[in-house]
Amino acid sequence: MLTDALKSQIREIHQQLKSNLTNYQPRPGQNKMVAEIANTLAGSYHSYDRTLLVEAGTGTGKSLAYLMAAIPFALKQKKTLVIATATVALQEQLVQKDLPFFLKHSGLKFEFCLVKGRQRYACVEKIRQQLQQPDLLPLFQSTAPAALLQQLLTNWQQRHWLGDRDSLIEPVADEHWYAIASDPAHCSKANSIHHHCPFHLARAEIEGSTVLVVNHALLLADLDAGSQILPEPADCIYVIDEAHHLPDSGRDFFSAYAPLSFPAQYLEKLKKTTQQLAGILPQHGAMTEVLKLDELATDFLKQLKPVQHQIELNQHNWFTKEPHYRFADAVLPETFASHADQLAELSGKALSCVEKLQQFLSEATTEHKVATKLVLPLQFELTAIEHRFEQQSELWRLYSVPQQKHVNQARWVAMDRDNQLSSAYASPLSVSFLLDDLLFSQAFATVLCSATLTTLNSFDYIKQELGLAQHPGLKTLKVDSPFDYQNKASLLLPKMQTDPSSDAFTDELIDKLPKYLDKKAGNLLLFASYWQMQKVVEALRAKGWSFLVQGEASRQSLLELHSLKVKAGEGSILCGTQSFSEGLDLPGALLTNLVITKLPFAVPSSPLEEALSEAITKRGGNPFLQMTVPATARKLVQACGRLLRQEQDHGRIVILDRRLVTKTYGKAMLKALPPFSQTIED
Questions:
Q1: Same domain, yes or no, for 540 and 607?
Q2: DSSP per residue, 151-178
Q3: Using CA atoms, how far apart are residues 658 and 680, in angstroms rounded to an integer?
Q4: Alpha-carbon distance 413 to 330, whole Å?
Q5: pLDDT in tens, 293-337
Q6: CB neighbours of residue 227 within 10 Å
Q7: 18 within a domain of the structure (yes/no)
Q8: Which end of the chain is flanked by fewer CB atoms within 10 Å, N or C?
Q9: 304 and 167, same structural domain?
């Protein structure tokens, strides 16, 4: 149970934080969050199932609430607090603002660090080696330019750069970053020259830290790998922020993709690599693995031939309307099904073989049996081969899972634009069992929070998505925003002549939008499709309107220019699609006029969405009401949440989609929005 001493400590920390917060306003909702989180962690509600869902509206002080409740408890119980976010923006806010503020004013002593994936870090030794020997990577096609390498090394040595991709002074192209990025084969801690590489220095910070900030993908990857980076789940208190993204993050992580076409040059490179390995590795065991890899690769490609042939035969039937073809009910064609097990086995064995060869190469370098100049190019090639077989192993492992009465996957194939190269995909329809098995049932405690966890005012949808519906100790908490929505924001639904599904709707937008845009203010204009945004912007620009449009410059550049224009009194209209509906922070005068052209319905055109819809229908459900409407309602709440970011903010929301009042589901969506003052034109 929550002890009196811990309660007293949390109250004292709260008091210290309040006295150091500028323009602090009492927030009863924040107090409620702190109490519920602390009681959940202490097992006050359930002895072992310590799980809490928290929906906290904008301005409730969610981040500080979970820090206040969780950090004192983690320190006392010697647990690690792992905070997982979906966006880089929230990670930066936590690491650069919230945690430093909490550490400074809480009176507690603890360490915290941001944990990123290995590929986000450069290997400084790789940079040095490539500078010393420009021809070091003859088989690698995209060696970074010498001037870039020298600049990076200088910046690292002078501590102007932290050695990770996110702190680069100037961005680096993907192909150049790949040439210097850390990976297990080239940047092993076993080799002393890599001890001071950015990745290993960053990982060393984990050991002494009480608070670790990660993203959803890294958390899932580490849980799936058996906690190789983060502590064991039983030793962790997890706070999953932006938790409404977790089901999609899970589907992305546990899905698989692999090319089914192997160009001739790739096969030649594979053969050349095995020949070179045979020529330089002295160990008898290494030679065995080289021969085995060559044999396994040959057998794998032989087994893949019938699959490739079937795609060629069906090309004109499968890819006439779309560049992809989904297998209904995840039922694979006979050729795919009959070869899946063997392809999974062969690719898995080949992958194991490559991993052993990487180890042999690493040992050869460490023990100075072979010159680095010979080894490094082969390590790069083996890494590429390893990646290929990893893709194949994951794909065919999923394809070999039987799909009978209960379909649990989406499966499809796709062709490139030139109909030359084919690829195959598999994705789980639900990750609820995986999340429960890896995370919720193993963790010491889990708090999941977001501004949009409920759907149409109910937690039921997210409980099912996360696999928490049957958890005996699950608690839920909904904390409303302290903002005065009634007096600070108005919602206008103008009279419209056309339905948003009509082709004429775009023309009506072009005609009516000027009436609802304010040239002298900060505007955000949100569209449901990129195509419609481009058409409307093009037409209105021809009439003299000026816009800052998503895709025409980087997001950061657009936001900076928008800010400069508004602060100069010129006004600005920022245009974007779904990605601008969430995570965009435009406080004060930067946004006083939000215009939403259309409800953000996702068109079920992707193979995954089609499969999800098919599965619901097969169970006798209604995919539109059970999947599409809840997802759209959540997106609409997120979009409307862009307007008021601080208590002193004010403004207007205009929604040009009359389905909010003409459809039953629309009325439910309208009811789920914050209590803005509403004007609905007849």
A1: yes
A2: HHHHHHHTTS--SBGGG-SS---HHHHH
A3: 9
A4: 11
A5: 989 999 999 999 999 999 999 988 999 888 899 999 999 999 999
A6: 16
A7: no
A8: C
A9: no
Is residue 55's pLDDT more than 90?
Answer: yes
Q: Are residues 246 and 270 in the same domain?
A: no
Task: Tell me the CA end-to-end span of the chain in Å, nearest whole number.
Answer: 56
Q: What does each C-alpha distance from 402 to 412, 451, 615 come to in angstroms?
A: 15, 38, 16
- 427 domain residue, yes or no: no
* Calpha distance 518→572 (Å, rounded): 8
Q: Within this chain, do residues 315 and 369 fall inside the same structural domain, yes or no?
A: yes
CA distance 335 to 312: 13
**Positive or negative CA dihedral for 425, 430, 435, 436?**
negative
The CA angle 677-584-92, to the nearest 5 degrees, is 135
Give CA–CA dist 511/533, Å, rounded. Answer: 14
The model's pLDDT over 68-90, given as tens digits with 9 standing for 90+, comes to 999 999 999 999 999 999 988 78
CA nearest 214: which of 200, 231, 226? 231
Interacting residues of 342 by C-beta distance below 8 A, sequence separation 6+? 303
Q: Of 479, 496, 512, which residue sits at a domain end? A: 479
Q: In the chain, pLDDT over 70 holds for what percent of residues?
A: 96
CB-count burial class (<10 Å; 0-12, 13-18, 19+) for 367: exposed
> Are both 347 and 442 inside the same structural domain?
no
* Mean pLDDT value of segment 181-200: 80
Helix or strand or coil: residue 575? strand
Does a structural domain hold residue 565? yes
pLDDT, one tens digit per residue, over 479-490 is 999 999 999 999
Question: Can you list the positions of beta strands (E) in 94-206?
Answer: 112-114
* Contact residues for 31 (Cβ-Cβ < 8 A; gap 6+): 14
Instruction: Answer for the pair 253, 320: CB distance below 8 angstroms, yes or no.
Output: no
Are 144 and 130 contacting, i.e. CB atoms less than 8 angstroms apart?
Answer: yes
Strands 572-576 and 593-596: unpaired
Q: 643 and 481 in contact (C-beta within 8 Å)? A: no
Boundary of a domain, candidates 442, 459, 479: 479
Degrees (nearest 5) of the Cα angle 177, 175, 125? 35
Strands (E) located in 232-320: 236-240, 256-259
Nearest to 110 by CA among 72, 136, 154: 72
The reply to whether 416 and 374 lie within a common domain is yes
User: Which of these, 216, 228, 227, lies nearest to 254 by C-alpha position?
Assistant: 216
Q: Which of 601, 634, 625 is nearest to 459 (CA)?
A: 634
The 10 Å Cβ neighbour count of residue 648 is: 11
38 C-beta neighbours (distance < 10 Å), count: 21
Residue 469: CATH number of its domain: 3.40.50.300
Strand partners, 415: 422
- Are 411 and 336 within one domain? yes
Element spanning 219, H or E: helix 216-224
Instruction: Describe the crossing of helices 334-366 and 264-280 by its angle, rounded to 10 degrees.
Output: 40
- Range of the structural domain that residue 445 is part of: 29-110+210-250+432-479
Residue 24 lies in a domain: no
| Pair 180, 292 in one domain | no
d(CA 527, CA 596): 6
The count of domains in the chain is 4
Give the pairing type, strands 211-215 and 677-680: unpaired
Contact 221, 109 (CB under 8 A): no
pTM: 0.88
- Nearest CA to 627 out of 652, 655, 648, 606 is that of 606
At 656, the amino acid letter reads: L
> How far apart are alpha carbons 38 and 8 in whole angstroms?
12
